[in-house]
Amino acid sequence: MDLRVTESPSVYRHLEKKSVDELVELINQEDQSVAVQIKQVLPQLSRLIKAIVEKISGGGRLFYVGAGSGGRLSVLDVIELPTTYGLPKGIFNVILAGGIDRLADALEEKEDDTREAWEKLQAANVTTQDIVIGISASGTTPFVLAALYQCRQRSIPTGCIVSNPDSPIAAASDFPVEVITGPEFVTGSTRMKCGTAQKMIFDMISTTTMIQLGRVEDNSMVNVALINDKITDRAVRMLMEKAGISDYEEAKMVLLKYGSVKQAMEHVSRNV
């Protein structure tokens, strides 16, 4: 790969001489370009998501493999799913360089480890029923690339999210998503536009997959886990609206008995 756009010099010079007002305006201007670039790769992204839905619908799992900012962002997305959508743990997973338990340590040196990711995938008993998605702004991260090579040799489906064209990681992926966000505001700081693109794409992957798997009805999180008062109150009001229950305490009693809006609605439907 000759062209590494992510490492190209910023189009802005002498940032230290700019005012706060100028800096935030320019960063915002750069951020607005991210959604435009993602729009260019929606067909690639749709192919990847369809493959994910197919695998999970068939009893398989998704594994993100990543390091640095992209890997950490994938962790943040995955940990939300059991609460937001009632998804059983272990269906969406992350293999993070250095380990999820060291998430806050930013062990950037671990991205050069070519054995850890595959060893962790093996420990999780990854099979051809699963799908493995590499996360790498550069498209060259050894931690990610080595895992995808091992998967390809064993016919395990692979995808990726990268921000450079024609990268080795994209070449090792069955479903590559190459979103080229261009030079960063601060040269090489891929936690900025690349990270923003990755976060937006994770949202699209997880939300679309959850909807396709039936974990959203209409536009509501009917499988949300009742983990605190705020979410429980939201779920009670959701049940009142959808089931036509006018009494708050009655709706709350039914909700807590059945554990989710979806299960409570099924109970109400059976008894109408």
Which SSEs are present, and which pair or pack?
Layout: H1 20-40, H2 42-57, E1 62-66, H3 68-78, H4 81-85, E2 92-96, H5 116-123, E3 131-136, H6 142-153, E4 158-162, H7 168-171, E5 175-178, H8 193-212, H9 229-243, H10 248-258, H11 261-271
Parallel strand pairs: 1-2, 1-3, 3-4, 4-5
Helix pairs in contact: 1-8, 2-8, 3-8, 5-6, 9-10, 9-11, 10-11
What does this structure look like?
The chain is α/β, with parallel strands linked by helices. It folds into two domains: 5-212, 3-Layer(aba) Sandwich (Rossmann fold); 229-271. Helix content is 49%, strand content 9%. The chain has helices at residues 20-40, 42-57, 68-78, 81-85, 116-123, 142-153, 168-171, 193-212, 229-243, 248-258, 261-271; strands at residues 62-66, 92-96, 131-136, 158-162, 175-178. It has a five-stranded parallel beta sheet with strand order 2-1-3-4-5, with helices on both faces. α5 crosses α6. The protein is globular. The termini are far apart. The mean pLDDT is 94.
